[in-house]
Specification:
about 55 residues; mainly alpha; single chain; elongated
């Protein structure tokens, strides 16, 4: 739970929104893992093939 002084049922100040979303993403990473679309690919890359005869 994140409570910021001067904020009600939501955050209006940009710095409080940033903290909220940073904490939320950290929570998701701890409990469900990182988003695979943001991770570097671990798939092997095929070597280029020559098209010359």
């Amino acid at each position: 739970m994140i409570i910021q002084k001067g904020e009600g049922h939501g955050f209006e100040k940009p710095e409080n929104n940033l903290r909220f979303y940073t904490e939320m993403l950290a929570f998701f990473e701890r409990h469900i893992g990182k988003d695979p679309s943001t991770q570097p690919s671990t798939l092997p890359v095929a070597a280029p093939t020559s098209t010359k005869p």
